[in-house]
């Protein structure tokens, strides 16, 4: 995006100093070069920037932040630019600088005995998984964008994914971080410790803060033993309430071996079948809800299959499950996961929609779906619900598709604010959250302010003011 000449003229001292610090080829100002960094993943936000800065080391990040302080330039940290809430997109004023961390892409250390891997912020998530596997270990964070998202972005948004039930969120997978503060100092918190009671837990301040308190440049992440076997199954159920009862039964049978428990409504799989017919619906009849569950067994595949068979037999006898199929091969297991992973793609093919990344206590999920579905049907007749997500940790992607055959763009323009209010009011009544794993970014900043208490907002603002008094770290995100 071209910038006015008068603005450009005020940039020269800052840009020249940045070029001296990291090399002119890594200070991008040409619109063709900066364009990929200025639009968010969903193409909902289009920003402008003074420059895109591409440092290669933590010291270079620190030098750039010090220059930003000197010249009063706001910094927008960015990893793989796969976020879904606009948290890594600059505003439209052209006075901010995007700081891309993609060149900080080294794996610094793997410690098999400590079960840790130390990686820089720009390492792609799939590469962390691969390096862990090379060392005979498992890095369990897994999500749809793992081939392009970075570990720094995962930490900045406290990403969840499909393994939270067993392994926790990104926060729970992180032992220590290295951070460049808003003053350009470097805090070396890269401690691979499970226990450290020596004061405030500064690490947790930065995880999930979306770059508003400082810039994470590296982290020590937990590794786990590779499972001896993974076994995947699909189960068909009559309702979300039955799925909750099935979850309790599965946890009783499998305990920590249960690593995945994903809920998909029938309409989700209808959309997948419509737009990706090569992905076959696994059951003969239609069922209100489908659960994808996975066991990771440290003993053997035979042990996992025997456990699965006992679980399914008990669930069928109890009437919780109407039908079930266990994957007989890795290919079939991947086919089951493909059904789940293609839901967002199928929804995008179907047309514009209103997305919600909400979380409620697991016990309330059935009631939340029933009550909120009814409220939406009354307010917007014909709206189609695309409900899927991580039932095991209470996180639902509760999305609303326009009525079939209607004008989707007009549907959004006329109903998005109404639908958001219905959904978020319902979430609030059930003591939930309006953002379970995508963060607030700029998308939900006003909604968060509406539902958080005055005390909570004041505490957040006090932290922001104390750590970033000049408001140069990703302004306009998380807090106004």
TrEMBL record:
Pfam families found in the cross-reference section: FAD-oxidase_C, FAD_binding_4
Per the record's keyword annotation, is Flavoprotein included, yes or no? yes
Recorded hits in SUPFAM superfamilies, A to Z, give:
FAD-binding/transporter-associated domain-like, FAD-linked oxidases, C-terminal domain
Question: Which GO-annotated molecular functions does the record name?
Answer: catalytic activity; FAD binding
Q: Which residues form the FAD-binding PCMH-type domain?
A: 45-226
Q: Which keywords does the record carry? A: FAD, Flavoprotein
- Cofactor(s), by name: FAD
Query: What does the record list as GO biological process?
Result: respiratory electron transport chain
Q: List the InterPro entries.
A: FAD-bd_oxidored_4_C (IPR004113), FAD-bd_PCMH (IPR016166), FAD-bd_PCMH-like_sf (IPR036318), FAD-bd_PCMH_sub1 (IPR016167), FAD-bd_PCMH_sub2 (IPR016169), FAD-linked_Oxase-like_C (IPR016164), FAD-oxidored/transferase_4 (IPR051264), Oxid_FAD_bind_N (IPR006094)
Q: Which family does it belong to?
A: Belongs to the FAD-binding oxidoreductase/transferase type 4 family.
Tell me what this protein is called: FAD/FMN-containing dehydrogenase
Source species of the chain = Paraburkholderia caballeronis
């Amino acid at each position: 995006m071209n910038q006015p000449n008068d603005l450009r003229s005020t940039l020269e001292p800052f840009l020249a100093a940045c070029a001296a610090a990291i090399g002119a080829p890594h200070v991008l100002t040409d619109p063709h070069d900066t364009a990929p960094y200025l639009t968010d993943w969903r193409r909902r936000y289009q920003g402008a920037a003074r420059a895109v800065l591409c440092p290669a080391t933590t010291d270079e990040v620190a030098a750039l932040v010090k220059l930003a302080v000197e010249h009063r330039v706001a910094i927008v940290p960015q990893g793989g630019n796969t976020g879904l809430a606009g948290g890594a997109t600059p505003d439209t004023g052209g006075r901010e600088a995007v700081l891309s961390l993609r060149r900080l892409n080294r794996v610094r250390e793997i410690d098999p005995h400590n079960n840790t891997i130390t990686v820089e912020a720009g390492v792609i998530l799939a590469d962390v998984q691969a390096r862990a596997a090379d060392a005979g270990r498992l890095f369990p964070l897994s999500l749809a964008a793992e081939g392009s998202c970075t570990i720094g972005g995962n930490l900045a948004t406290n990403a969840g994914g499909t393994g939270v039930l067993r392994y926790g969120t990104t926060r729970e997978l992180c032992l220590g971080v290295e951070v460049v503060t808003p003053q350009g100092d470097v805090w070396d918190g890269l401690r691979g410790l499970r226990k450290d009671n020596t004061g405030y837990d500064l690490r947790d301040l930065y995880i999930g803060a979306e770059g508003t308190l400082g810039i994470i440049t590296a982290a020590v992440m937990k590794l786990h033993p590779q499972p001896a076997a993974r076994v995947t199954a699909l189960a068909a159920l009559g309702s979300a309430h039955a799925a909750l009862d099935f979850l309790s039964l599965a946890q009783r049978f499998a305990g920590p071996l249960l690593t995945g428990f994903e809920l998909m409504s029938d309409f989700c799989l209808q959309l997948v079948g419509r737009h990706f017919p090569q992905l076959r619906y696994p059951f003969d009849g239609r069922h209100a809800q489908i659960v994808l569950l996975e066991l990771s067994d440290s003993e053997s595949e035979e042990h996992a299959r025997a456990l699965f068979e006992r679980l399914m037999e008990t669930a069928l006898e109890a009437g919780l499950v109407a039908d079930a199929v266990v994957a007989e091969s890795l290919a079939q297991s991947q086919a089951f996961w493909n059904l789940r992973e293609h839901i967002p793609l199928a929804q995008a093919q179907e047309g514009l929609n209103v997305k919600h990344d909400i979380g409620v206590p697991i016990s309330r999920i059935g009631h939340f779906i029933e009550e909120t579905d009814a409220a939406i049907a009354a307010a917007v007749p014909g709206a189609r619900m695309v409900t899927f997500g991580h039932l095991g940790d209470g996180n639902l992607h509760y999305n609303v598709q326009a009525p079939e055959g209607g004008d989707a763009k007009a549907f959004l323009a006329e109903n998005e604010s109404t639908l958001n209010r219905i959904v978020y009011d319902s979430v609030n009544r059930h003591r939930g959250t309006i953002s379970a794993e995508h963060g607030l970014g700029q998308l939900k900043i006003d909604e968060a302010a509406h539902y958080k208490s005055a005390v909570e907002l004041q505490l957040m603002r006090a932290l922001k003011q104390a750590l970033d008094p000049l408001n140069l770290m990703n302004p306009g995100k998380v807090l106004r």
